[in-house]
């Protein structure tokens, strides 16, 4: 069977649970049937509760760019712009927030909330100073251009600058921490494009 998410082929006997009959309609493999944000997983026979987030085509590339797969709850948060543009993990409002969601700061350039764990410059001391000083300014890795390539090729440079479609595997680091396949525009801001599970990270060839 061919996964409608990643186009990888799977034997029916390798699915969990094993599939005796090819399902009708769309089907997601075990790598794709997982929410990028909360990690919720369905078994290989329940593939209806996931939603794809994509960035629209641009003048620089003519196809929509796949961003991530979300469960219904997290996709609702994503559609309401409650996500960190560096990692694309979503967050809820008010008292529903997880403890880790509370450690976020607003970027003064794009006005989106950023997880402290998504930027190596957001040390506990830096985070506390931003909380204590209302006049302090902060720019997220995307707005500050803190994008480091893992491999040095022209294709990678273009993907990380957002002037071409994202790469198939992770080729850069955002904020010194978060792996990315590239940078694209979404809702008039820059967002990092997360790893497609199972594709790994590009490596520098050994000399």
UniProtKB/TrEMBL annotation:
SMART domains: PHD (SM00249). Keywords: Metal-binding, Nucleus, Repeat, Transcription, Transcription regulation, Zinc, Zinc-finger. It is found in: Nucleus. The lineage of its organism: Eukaryota, Fungi, Fungi incertae sedis, Mucoromycota, Mucoromycotina. Its main location: nucleus. GO terms for molecular function: zinc ion binding. InterPro entries: Znf_FYVE_PHD, Znf_PHD, Znf_PHD-finger, Znf_RING/FYVE/PHD. Pfam families: PHD (PF00628). Residues 81-146 form the PHD-type domain. GO terms for cellular component: nucleus. It comes from Phycomyces blakesleeanus (strain ATCC 8743b / DSM 1359 / FGSC 10004 / NBRC 33097 / NRRL 1555). This is PHD-type domain-containing protein.
């Amino acid at each position: 069977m061919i996964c409608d998410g990643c186009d990888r082929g799977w034997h029916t006997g390798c699915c969990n649970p094993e599939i005796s009959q090819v399902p009708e309609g769309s089907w997601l493999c075990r790598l794709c049937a997982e929410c990028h944000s909360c990690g919720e997983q369905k078994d290989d026979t329940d593939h209806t509760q996931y939603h794809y987030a994509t960035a629209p085509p641009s003048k620089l590339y003519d196809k929509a760019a796949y961003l991530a797969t979300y469960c219904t709850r997290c996709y609702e948060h994503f559609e309401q712009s409650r996500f960190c543009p560096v990692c694309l993990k979503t967050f809820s409002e008010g008292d529903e927030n997880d403890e880790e969601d509370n450690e976020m700061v607003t970027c003064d350039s794009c006005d989106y909330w950023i997880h402290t764990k998504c930027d190596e410059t957001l040390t506990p001391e830096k985070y506390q100073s931003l909380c204590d000083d209302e006049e302090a300014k902060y720019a997220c890795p995307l707005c500050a251009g803190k994008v480091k390539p893992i491999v040095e090729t022209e294709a990678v440079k273009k993907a990380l600058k957002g002037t071409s479609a994202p790469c198939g595997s992770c080729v850069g680091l955002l904020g010194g921490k978060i792996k990315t396949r590239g940078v694209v525009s979404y809702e008039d801001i820059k967002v990092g494009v997360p790893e497609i599970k199972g594709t790994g990270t590009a490596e520098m060839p050994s000399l």
